[in-house]
Design a protein that fits this description.
The complex is a heterodimer. In chain A, 69% of the residues lie in helices and 2% in strands. Chain A has helices at residues 19-59, 87-93, 100-129, 136-148, 151-162, 168-175, 187-216, 219-227, 232-260, 264-269, 281-290, 296-329, and strands at residues 70-72, 75-77. By secondary structure, chain A is mainly alpha-helical. In chain A, 37% of the residues are buried. A two-stranded antiparallel ribbon of chain A has the order 1-2. Chain A has a domain at 99-294: Orthogonal Bundle (MetI-like fold). Chain A contains twelve helices and two strands, in the order H-E-E-H-H-H-H-H-H-H-H-H-H-H. The longest helix of chain A has 41 residues, at 19-59. By secondary structure, chain B is mainly alpha-helical. Chain B is built from twelve helices and no strands. Chain B has helices at 6-35, 54-61, 65-96, 102-112, 117-130, 137-161, 165-173, 178-189, 191-206, 210-215, 224-229, 239-273. The chains are: A mainly alpha, B mainly alpha. At the A-B interface, helix 1, helix 3, helix 4, helix 5 and helix 7 of A face helix 1, helix 3, helix 4, helix 5 and helix 6 of B. Chain B: It is a multi-pass membrane protein. Chain B: Keywords: Cell membrane, Membrane, Sugar transport, Transmembrane, Transmembrane helix, Transport. Chain B: The chain crosses the membrane at residues 12-32, 73-93, 105-125, 194-217, 237-260. Chain B: Belongs to the binding-protein-dependent transport system permease family. MalFG subfamily. Chain B: It comes from Prauserella alba.
Chain lengths: 330, 275
C-alpha cells in the first residue's frame, strides 16, 4: 500500500491524523452509539466502578464500625482508620483469620454439589418428559412449580418443614423409625439442608432449559442411530449429550454463577449457622460487614477476593464462548 | 412409542409422580399450615385442628405486611423501570453498532452481572450513608440497579440480536434516525423479550435480601423478605403469619411466572450462547 494517498478510500486504512482531528473524527462517527450507551456507563460508573474502587481502598485499611466517620446527634466524628497496605489480604490468605479456606472449601463443595444435582436431576426429568405420554403437561407444570416460588418464600417454607421440633421432615422420618435430626442446628445436617433446598429451587430451570434443548436434537439422528442398532444408552451418549452441548454449557455456567452467589437461601435458612459452618464466601463477607462490630475492611477484602475470582472465571467463560460460537457458527 | 411395555410405562409415571410430589409438597405444606388456626397445630404435623382464614385476616390487618408488600412493589418497580430504560438503549447500541469501547463495555456487563451483593455492599453502604440515602426507596433502588442494569443490558442485547438487521435498514431508508428506528421499529418487535426482562428484573429486585436487609433500617421501610423474617425468630414463632404471608406473595408471582416461563428460559440462555 502506498502512503502517498492523501484522501483515504473506503476499506483502506487511513493514515493516522493528528490527535485533535482524530478525536473529532471518532466523535462524528460514533457520537450516536456513545450517546446511547452513556446512561448505562454513568450508572455503572457511579454505582459499580466507584464503589468497587472504594471497596478496594477500604480493603487496604483497618476500617471498622468504631473508627469510621459517623454522625451522632449533632457531633460529627471524623474517620480515624488508617492505611495498612496488604495486611488484610495477608491475614485472610495466610489463613490466620481462621475462616477463609474453610469457607472457600465449603463454597466449592456447595457449588459443585448443587450444580451437579441440578443438572443430573434436571436432565433426568427432561428426558422423562420428552416422551409422548399422558398427563405430560400436568407433570411439567407441577415440576416447574419450585421455580415460581421466590427464594425467600421457599426458605421460610423449608424452615417450617425442617424445624427440629414439630417439623414435618422429622415426623416423616419418625414413621420409618429414624430419630429426629436437628436439620438446621448441626453443621453437617445444616449443610445437607441448604443444598437440598437449593436443589429443590434450581432443578426446574435446568429441566425446562434442557427439555428445550432436547427438542432441538434432530429426530433423524435418532433414527439413524436406531438403524445402526445403537442401544438406548449408546444413543444417549452419542446423540443426546452432544446435541445438548450448547444448552448444557450455558445452563451449567449460569447455575454455577447463581449458586456461587446464592445469598437468600443460606441467609434466611440457617443465617450461615451453626457457628458459620454453612457460610459461603458471599454470606461470610456480608456477616463480617454487618454483624457484631462491623468489620468493613475485612468484608471489603472478602469482596475484592470474590470479585477477582469472578473476573478470572469470566475470562475463561469468554474463551469458552468464543470456542463454542466457532464450533456452532464458524 | 406405543411399543413401550406397561412396566416401563408404570416406572415412568411412578418416577414422575414421585418427583412431582417432592416439587409440590413444600408449597402445599405452607398453604395447609396457613389455614391452621390453632397455634398448637403449627408444629404438630399430624394434627389439623380447625381450618380457617384467621391467619390471613391477622397478617393483613394486624401486621405491617401490606406496608412491606407496598415497599417491595415500589422498590422492584423502580429498579425495573430505571434498569430496563437505560439498559435498552445500550443493549441496542451494542447489538447494532460498532464503536470504540464496545468490547470493554460488554466485558463490564458480563463481569458485573456476576458480582454478588457482597462485593459492593460495604462501599455502597458508605456511599449511601454519606448521601443520606440509607433507609430510603431511592437508595435501595440505586443499589438494586447494580444488579439489574448489567443483566438487563446483556439480556436485551441478546434479544435485539435475534431481530434481523434488514428491519433497521428499512427504517433508515425511510428516513428514521437510529434512535427513531430503535424506538418505533425494534422496541415493538422486541416486546416479548422486553417483557421477560422486565419480569425477571422485577422478580429479582422483589426478593432481594442482602441490600434490602442492610439499607432499610426502620420497620416501616422493610421489604417483604426482611419484614416477614421477623415473624419467626429465636424468640417467637408466628408460623401462621409467615405461611399466610408466603401464600399471599406466591399467588401473584406464580401466576405471572407461568405466563412468561417459556420465554424466560429462551431469554436467559440466549444471552449466554451468542455473545
Amino acid at each position: 500500500m502506498t502512503t502517498s494517498t492523501t484522501r483515504p478510500q473506503a476499506g483502506v486504512a487511513p493514515p493516522v491524523p493528528p490527535p485533535r482531528r482524530r478525536v473529532r473524527g471518532l466523535l462524528t462517527r460514533h457520537w450516536y452509539a456513545w450517546a446511547m450507551v452513556t446512561p448505562v456507563v454513568v450508572v455503572i460508573g457511579a454505582l459499580v466502578m466507584f464503589p468497587l474502587v472504594k471497596g478496594i481502598y477500604l480493603s487496604l485499611t483497618d476500617a471498622t464500625e468504631m473508627n469510621s466517620g459517623r454522625t451522632i446527634g449533632v457531633n460529627e466524628i471524623p474517620a480515624t482508620y488508617s492505611f495498612v497496605g496488604f495486611e488484610n489480604y495477608i491475614d485472610v490468605l495466610s489463613g490466620s483469620d481462621g475462616a477463609f479456606y474453610s469457607r472457600l472449601l465449603w463454597t466449592v463443595q456447595w457449588t459443585v454439589a448443587c450444580v451437579t444435582l441440578h443438572f443430573t436431576i434436571g436432565l433426568g426429568l427432561a428426558l422423562l418428559l420428552n416422551r409422548a405420554m399422558r398427563l405430560r403437561g400436568l407433570y411439567r407444570m407441577l415440576l416447574i412449580l419450585p421455580w415460581a416460588v421466590p427464594p425467600f418464600v421457599a426458605a421460610f417454607g423449608w424452615r417450617l418443614i425442617l424445624n427440629e421440633q414439630g417439623g414435618v421432615a422429622n415426623s416423616v422420618l419418625g414413621l420409618f423409625g429414624i430419630d429426629a435430626v436437628n436439620w438446621l442446628g448441626e453443621p453437617l445436617a445444616a449443610k445437607i439442608s441448604v443444598i437440598m433446598v437449593n436443589v429443590w429451587l434450581g432443578v426446574p430451570f435446568m429441566m425446562v432449559a434442557l427439555l428445550g434443548g432436547l427438542q432441538t436434537v434432530s429426530k433423524d439422528l435418532y433414527e439413524a442411530a436406531e438403524m445402526d442398532g445403537a442401544t438406548a444408552w449408546q444413543q444417549f451418549r452419542a446423540v443426546t449429550l452432544p446435541g445438548l452441548r450448547p444448552v448444557s454449557g450455558t445452563v451449567i455456567l449460569l447455575g454455577t454463577i447463581w449458586t456461587f452467589n446464592q445469598f437468600p437461601v443460606i441467609a434466611l435458612l440457617t443465617g450461615g449457622g451453626p457457628g458459620g459452618s454453612t457460610n459461603i464466601l458471599v454470606t461470610e463477607a456480608y456477616e463480617r460487614a454487618f454483624q457484631g462490630i462491623r468489620d468493613y475492611s475485612g468484608a471489603a477484602t472478602y469482596g475484592a477476593l470474590i470479585a477477582s475470582m469472578l473476573v478470572v472465571f469470566a475470562f475463561f467463560y469468554k474463551r469458552w464462548l468464543a470456542k463454542q460460537s466457532e464450533e456452532v457458527f464458524g | 412409542m406405543s411399543t413401550r411395555s406397561w412396566k416401563a410405562s408404570a416406572g415412568l409415571h411412578i418416577t414422575l409422580v414421585f418427583a412431582s410430589v417432592i416439587a409440590v409438597f413444600p408449597v402445599a405444606w405452607v398453604a395447609l399450615t396457613s389455614l391452621k388456626t390453632d397455634r398448637a397445630t403449627w408444629t404438630r404435623p399430624e394434627k389439623l385442628g380447625t381450618l380457617g382464614v384467621s391467619n390471613y385476616t391477622q397478617v393483613l390487618g394486624e401486621t405491617r405486611f401490606l406496608t412491606w408488600f407496598g415497599n417491595s412493589l415500589v422498590v422492584a418497580a423502580g429498579t425495573t423501570v430505571l434498569g430496563v430504560l437505560i439498559a435498552a438503549s445500550a443493549g441496542y447500541a451494542a447489538s447494532r453498532m460498532r464503536f470504540p469501547g464496545k468490547r470493554p463495555l460488554m466485558w463490564t456487563f458480563l463481569v458485573t452481572q456476576m458480582f454478588p451483593a457482597a462485593v459492593l455492599i460495604v462501599p455502597l453502604y458508605n456511599v449511601m450513608s454519606d448521601l443520606g440515602l440509607l433507609d430510603s426507596y431511592g437508595g435501595l433502588i440505586l443499589a438494586q440497579c447494580t444488579i439489574a442494569v448489567p443483566y438487563c443490558a446483556w439480556m436485551l442485547k441478546g434479544y435485539f440480536d435475534t431481530i434481523p438487521v434488514s428491519i433497521d435498514e428499512a427504517g433508515r431508508i425511510d428516513g428514521l434516525s437510529p434512535l427513531g428506528t430503535f424506538w418505533r421499529l425494534i422496541v415493538p418487535l422486541a416486546r416479548p423479550g422486553i417483557s421477560v426482562t422486565v419480569f425477571y428484573s422485577f422478580i429479582t429486585a422483589w426478593g432481594e435480601v442482602a441490600f434490602a436487609s442492610v439499607f432499610m433500617q426502620s420497620e416501616g421501610h422493610y421489604t417483604l423478605p426482611i419484614g416477614m423474617a421477623t415473624f419467626v425468630s429465636d424468640f417467637k414463632a408466628e408460623w401462621g403469619l409467615l405461611t399466610a404471608g408466603s401464600v399471599l406473595v406466591m399467588l401473584p408471582t406464580a401466576a405471572v411466572f407461568f405466563l412468561v416461563q417459556r420465554h424466560l428460559v429462551a431469554g436467559l440462555t440466549a444471552g449466554g450462547v451468542k455473545s
